[in-house]
Amino acid sequence: MNRWHAGKKLALALMFGLFPLLAACGRADLSVLNPQGPVAQRQFDVLMVSVGIMTLVVVVVFALLIYVLVRFRRRRGDNSIPEQVEGNHKLEIIWTVIPIILLIILAVPTVGAIGKFAEDYWDDPNAVQVKVTAYQYWWEFEYPQYGITTAQELVVPIGKKIAFELVAGDVKHSFWIPAIGGKMDNNPGLTNRFYLEFPTPGVYRGRCAELCGPSHAYMDFKAKAVDQASFDRWVAAMQGPAVLPEDDNIREAFVSKCLTCHAVGDQGAPIGPNLTGLGSRVTVAGILFNDTPEQEYVIDPAKTEENIKVWLEDTQKIKPGNMMPSAVDLQLTQEQIDGIAKYLANYRLDYE
Amino acid sequence: MAAHAHAVKRYPGFWGWLWDWLTTVDHKKIGILYLVAGGLFFVFGGIEALLIRLQLMFPMNDLISEDFYNELITMHGTTMIFLAAMPVIFALMNAVVPLQIGARDVAFPFVNALGFWTFFFGGLLLNLAWLMGEVPDAGWTAYPPLATTAYSSHHGMDYYVLGLQIAGIGTLLGGINFMATIINLRAPGMTFMRMPMFTWASFITSALIVFAFPALTVGLVAMMFDRIFGANFFNVDAGGNIVLWEHIFWLFGHPEVYILILPAFGVISEVISTFSRKRLFGYSTMVFATILIAFLGFMVWAHHMFTTGLGPVANALFSIATMAIAVPTGIKVFNWLFTMWGGSIRFTAANLYAIGFIPTFVMGGVTGVMLASAPADFQYHDSYFVVGHFHYTIVGGLVTGLLAGIHYWWPKMFGRMLHEGLGKLSFWFYIIGFHLTFFVQHFLGLLGMPRRVATYLPNQGFDTMNLVSTIGAILMTVGIAVFFVNVVITSLKPRHAANDPWEDGRTLEWAIPSPAPEYNFKQIPLVRGLDAWWKEKMEGNKELPPAEPLGPIHMPSPSILPFIMGVGFFISGFGFMYNLVFAVIGLVIVLVCMALRSIFDDHGYHIEPEEPKKGEVAA
Predict the structure, then answer these.
(1) ipTM beyond 0.90?
(2) Could you tell me the residue range of the domain that residue A339 belongs to?
(3) Contact B344/A82, CB-based, under 8 Å?
């Protein structure tokens, strides 16, 4: 998959004069320049074709410009009148035809890739259907084939086509996992379809790419690619009955305060993000990371618990303008907050 | 009613001075008004830009809040495009085009003043949003539903739709006026194919304005009806369609970027040719390329919507059409290079800006071709790559071009030469700062940073480049500050610029005094070829051949009505938001002014020229 890796680094270094900041091509789970799937790879290939052509154009223009500026600068005391050249048909034809040829070279892979990415796998029985509904600052992932719904963390099997159906629940958003493939918009009132593929297991960073309000910057999600067996276990665990807090007081609070909007398993309401197996997710609210710097994406339940408390304490501070009330507004006691945080942090789906 | 044979009454003192500026219909003064107003809004937009960059200097910075950030990006984009770039373009068009075609004024001087005042009061209305505490915050593209009352319930976006509608009237009037002027008022002998390149660019840009701005107006009216009167054009629940707005907006929005860049192309053509002492290489190809760019500019709007989901056929067609624009643009670039080839290049501040334009714009152009490829655009779209690209074209291209034009024509507008040393200093700060700011943004986008984010998490590889970008923005600010210092210092000096201060002037404006007299040309000149003034100079003539005998010069009368109509629109704009009674009052003011203008004929007045003294340029 990384056949371009060396070539791409070389080309970029050449183009941008060994720009030191480009020493790395960005995170493997995030960067367009570090493609991790066939869709992103093909987009990267088109990118490299265009970078190649454009580098040629830029180099020619710069070289000509520098030559002209040095060669034809006005010398001191020179007051001669240069020849007033009208034009040159031969030259003008050359710099009309060559760009046309260059553009055709770019247009061919462009049109080919447009056709490829427009393929619709929604009705393909081998593809996994995911209906993505974007809301102000969070993502809902519904798997119609399995009758399950999750939020903020997309779980997909490797090696299969993932057929997405994109809609929005409020304003316009845009679904983007840079390392896996380019984006497609979530339009309210209209449905878009496209597909992605995840050949390698891992966690990939996704985000909203369309201005959607004050917390647009925080509308991140994760895509977790796992092998087929793990995916099947995850689906089974998601389909299982809800696990509710054992403590009566905590359970009562959770059911009456949280499940009016959220759902776990077969319980609750589908208004806010689904919380089933929250403890297995890499982040709380999409941006509070539950892993440790030493081990990326390995979840630390203590940190998850802490993040849930941070979130509950002031949801507007973490994501201004979001719909979720804070603990104070929900009249949760400290004991209930602690209990719910502990419960959710330990609500884990064992599938990996 | 016969025309009056007396000059305009001038009142003494500050109030007389103010009255003179409020009532002027002289294209040269209106040009200066546009320049001052555009400069003022440019400072507003610049401060907004600087705040944006300071916020993004570090990851998870909390210098400004997320809400304020969205207000800043919205107002920065809107202000810079509509209230800074457009008026400065109109400033140059007003200051230069009538002189370049040998005319005494524009076709409709009254409409010219009306265009300025409606633009100015529209811009003022929009910016008063800051003082009223309800600021537009849905981005300069104002995509619904975010821009509708359901998600933006305060008056912020109302200022946007009303301010831009009013300012848009001004722009449309300007476009119509310059089309009429260039078609009708060319001096004898000034055929279309002898027009200076800047005039050609102004002509094509005016045509683009006339065709593109109505689309924006339609969109804004629909949005206004949604927001203020509860209509449902963009209300999905009631059968509205949000993609409709995207089409309307970009059907205007893409031609708009050519409206912006074509005049800059025109400026570059003039400046480079003058300071290379050579005629423009491939003049007729340049004209043809400009027309082709303008035509294609209307065929490519959906490349802003590749990820909206228009389907593969639309995406493929718009990809190819967009790539096609690169061909005429490339022709222009090579023609500029070959204008300098074999020339005698002088590095004035104006020419430095013009030369700096070429590589910078080429870099913005090639990323434009990269973006034209829809499948790759799925990655670039709405990322910082796009931010880098359009700032290369609009700032690196347009603003650099305008600064070249401002330095070049300053003596013709004000009779004073800008200080060359300060001009060069400002250029180097500006150009280095510019590339530092925006070059890295392409890579930020490719590394996965979306645009319009109020902040970003650390450890994503974004930190260093964002810091570099902010440092660049500070350097750019220094460059612009040096320019303003230059303006102030220059303004304190006496007016002693020569008619042809660059000595190598080629077009008609350099044959007359700096600044031009009220009537421009004592006698309308006879144009004997392309680069008419250069031709006369080369044949040893000290003056342009006249095309008419010396006689009384017909001048338009000043009028306060355009200013009052601007005020009327301004009042009605506020009224639509807060109290419909005032909306009606404001519109009544406008209608009364229109009635007054229609009922009372004003045929202007005549200036009796003195006989030209021996040796004086009779132009």
Answers:
(1) yes
(2) 248-345
(3) yes
